[in-house]
């Protein structure tokens, strides 16, 4: 079992920066990849960024060059650094983990609001 707890969400003005965190506990060694998803009001949840166990990163086109996903293996924490944020980045950001046994875990989400 893996437990994920997000933190760091809040309100920020357009053009600003924000970093959100996802702390993992439990069977962290079993995690193959971790990702950030977001869901805006009235829209489907979408993948924002992911990082594999080997360190490979992937980003949605809408955030490339602005967002950076990183991890701290000692703290079992994944971060999403968001720079040059836009109002369309507003939403609930969810942490997701995929285990090597193809089990999937979600955090409870953290709200990010970007004002223009």
Radius of gyration over C-alpha positions, nearest whole angstrom: 13 Å
β-strand percent reads over 45%
Number of strands: 11
Unreliable stretches covering 5 or more consecutive residues: none
**Largest β sheet strand count, sense and barrel closure:** 7 strands, mixed
Helix count from the secondary structure assignment: 0
* Form type: globular
> How helix-rich are the residues, as a percent range?
under 10%
Span between termini: 40 Å
> Which structural class do you get from the secondary structure elements?
mainly beta
Overall pLDDT: 95
Give the topology string: H per helix, E per strand: EEEEEEEEEEE
What does this structure look like?
The structure is a single chain. The chain has no helices and eleven strands. It is mostly beta strands and 116 residues long. The mean pLDDT is 95. The protein has strands at residues 2-7, 10-13, 18-26, 31-39, 46-52, 57-59, 67-72, 77-82, 91-99, 104-106, 110-115. A hairpin with a 4-residue loop joins strand 7 (67-72) and strand 8. Helix content is 0%, strand content 59%. Strands 2, 4, 5, 6, 9, 10 and 11 form a seven-stranded mixed β-sheet that branches.
